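help with this.
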Amino acid sequence: MIALVIGLILLAFGVWAVLPGPFPIGLGWGPDVLNFLRGGAPILGFLIGIIALFIGIADIKDKIDAKKEEKSAGTESKTEEKK
């Protein structure tokens, strides 16, 4: 319950901080937030790209391992049939 209240307070502060206008209405941090997002977008894209690359490599390794297991399971079943 406390986490919910703290979350709502922080969300309300975030909205209040980016509202334009003088102090009682808002803090007017909107342009600063946009600058932060513009500066962080390339870094975020780079990090997401690295994660996607690692996931892709792991997927390729899993497919190779699955093919090896199928191949070994196929040869084992053939040797059992011959017996």
